[in-house]
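Run log // design_07
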């Protein structure tokens, strides 16, 4: 796969979406979670854009949602939501919200998020700032923005891609990362998704509206802080959330806790 393949595929994605301005990405790993996320998004008047991990099978798609198989032309073994986020400027009209497949929110929180996202100017974005250990506070290369929930705009996405500082994992290897001196400056920054966004904010004047992690933490069904969490395939980069999510959390229990059980 090369960038030309992605740019060509994005032409189809753009045509599938049309003129819709307020899109919210749902990354399918589980039927029940994908359905509930779409209904939550529709509750606040946004349009769900459903993509999927190739390992998860075809998603259920609500009336009014848009489904795109981002992998159809590319044929990759696995595909994460960071992929369409990196290339959002190629297919969105104005803005694209996003969240983890394992995140659910109360409706008042959804309304607050949607207002924040709708207020973003072009070239602005919103994301959760990932706190670092105190020992790393003075070392900016350990910081990143976290894709737990957020929103990008066409202008922000394009500027990040142009400068090789977006959602690309190991953004030091981005095809637009620059030359030798730029490589030296990037060398020690964190490897994970979102470090590039932090770098964009730090060195390229990127505008990021920060979302407090505490705002959405109660609905994040993650392995962190759950000692009995059962990993698939040994966890790490081989983890398969399409297996793990339903294996570790009962969606009815989570939904009732967040007062959204009526949407199931």
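design_07 sequence
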């Amino acid at each position: 796969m090369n960038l030309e393949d992605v740019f060509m595929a994005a032409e189809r994605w753009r045509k599938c979406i049309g003129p819709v301005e307020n899109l919210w990405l749902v990354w399918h790993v589980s039927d029940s979670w994908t359905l509930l996320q779409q209904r939550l998004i529709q509750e606040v008047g946004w349009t769900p854009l459903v993509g999927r991990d190739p390992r998860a099978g075809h998603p259920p798609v609500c009336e009014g949602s848009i489904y795109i198989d981002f992998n159809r032309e590319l044929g990759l073994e696995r595909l994460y939501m960071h992929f369409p986020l990196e290339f959002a400027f190629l297919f969105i009209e104005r803005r694209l919200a996003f969240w983890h497949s394992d995140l659910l929110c109360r409706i008042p929180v959804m309304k607050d998020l949607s207002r924040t996202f709708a207020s973003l100017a072009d070239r602005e974005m919103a994301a959760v700032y990932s706190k670092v250990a105190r020992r790393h506070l003075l070392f900016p290369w350990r910081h990143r923005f976290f894709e737990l929930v957020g929103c990008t705009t066409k202008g922000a996405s394009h500027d990040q891609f142009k400068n090789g500082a977006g959602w690309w994992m190991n953004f030091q290897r981005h095809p637009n990362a620059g030359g030798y001196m730029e490589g030296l400056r990037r060398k020690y920054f964190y490897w994970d998704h979102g470090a590039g966004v932090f770098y964009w904010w730090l060195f390229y004047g990127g505008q990021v509206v920060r979302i407090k992690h505490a705002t959405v933490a109660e609905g994040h069904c993650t392995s962190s802080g759950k000692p009995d969490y059962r990993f698939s395939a040994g966890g790490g980069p081989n983890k398969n959330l399409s297996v793990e999510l339903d294996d570790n959390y009962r969606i009815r229990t989570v939904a009732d806790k967040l007062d959204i059980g009526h949407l199931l």
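The mean pLDDT is 91.
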